[in-house]
Amino acid sequence: MTATGSVTVIRNGPVRVLAIDNPPVNGLGAAVRKALTEELATAFADADVEAIVIAGEGRMFCAGADIREFGKEPPPDAPALPDLIHTVEASTKPVVAAIHGVAAGGGLELALGCHARVAASDARVGLPEVTLGIIPGAGGTQRLPRLIGAEAALELIVSGKLIPATQAHRLGLLDELTDGDVIDAAIAHAKTISTPRRTSDGDIEAEGSIFDAVRKKFAKKARGFEAPDAAIEAVRAATELSTQEGFAKEREIFLRLLNSDQARALRHVFFAEREVAKVPDIPKETRSAEIRRAGIVGCGTMGGGIAMSFADAGIPVSILESDDAALKRGMETIRASYASSVAKGRLSTTEMDARVNRIQGTLEASELSDADIVVEAVFESMEVKKDVVRRLDEICKDDAILATNTSTLDVNEIAAATQRPEKVVGTHFFSPAHIMKLMENVRGEKTSKETVATIMKLSKRLGKVGVLVGVCDGFVGNRMLYAYRRQADFLIEEGALPQQVDQALYEFGLPMGPFAMADLAGLDIGWAIRKRQAPTRPQELRYSPIADRICEMGRFGQKTGAGWYRYEEGSRTPIPDPEIEKLIDNVSAELGFERRTIDDAEIVRRCLYPLINEGAKLLEEGIALRPSDIDIVWIYGYGFPRYRGGPMFYADTVGVDSIYEFMVKLHEEQGAWGKPAALLEKLATEGTGFEDYADRA
Ligand code: CAA
Question: Catalytic residue at 69?
Answer without folding.
Answer: no
